[in-house]
Write a structure and sequence with these properties.
The protein is of the alpha/beta class and 156 residues long. The protein is built from 6 helices and 6 strands. Helix 3 links the parallel strand 5 and strand 6. The longest helix is centred in the middle third of the chain and has 14 residues. The radius of gyration is 16 Å and the shape is globular. 17% of the residues are buried.
């Protein structure tokens, strides 16, 4: 993706106090909208584990492991007072609410899954598929490599 439209994006893993501090400083900067995503160990928020919270914008992305650093993600989401966008907000926010008990600011929440169904009904509605069509054609490359690795190595 070195020549793609996302090649300028700075990606960081929050795994130290220094990175958490840098993330919170970044979060305090002005931006039009904030993207939020979760990675989970399954599909049921009352049963399965929340593994990772990802927060970013057009220039940076921060991956925050829930175990050990979830408090950083929660503080960020509670303090941030701007608009947030999710793809399938019901899923992600379900995991965030079950794991934190926080009240969610639905009035500042946008859902690209719902938007895609309404505005682009003939396109695929999965995040990577839409991303490949609308943003960056290479968006599905990593997913394809992951699926190949899973099949080759018989990972579960």
């Amino acid at each position: 993706m070195s020549d793609g439209v996302l090649s300028h994006v700075n990606l960081q893993l929050v795994d130290s106090v220094e990175k958490a501090s840098a993330f919170m400083s970044w979060l305090g900067q002005s931006r039009e909208i904030l993207g939020v995503d979760t990675e989970t160990a399954g599909l049921k928020c009352h049963r399965d584990r929340l593994r990772l919270v990802q927060i970013g914008d057009m220039n940076a992305g921060w991956a925050i492991p829930w175990d050990g650093w979830g408090g950083v993600a929660l503080e960020a989401l509670m303090k941030y007072d701007g608009e947030m966008v999710f793809h399938n907000s019901r899923f992600d926010i379900g995991f965030l609410r079950v794991n934190s008990g926080m009240q969610w600011p639905w009035h500042r929440t946008h859902d690209t899954l719902t938007m895609s169904h309404l505005t682009l009904p003939t396109l695929p509605h999965d995040l990577k598929g839409l991303g490949a069509i609308l943003v960056e054609p290479h968006a599905t490359a990593a997913q394809r490599l992951l699926h190949e690795g899973i099949a080759t190595n018989k990972w579960d």
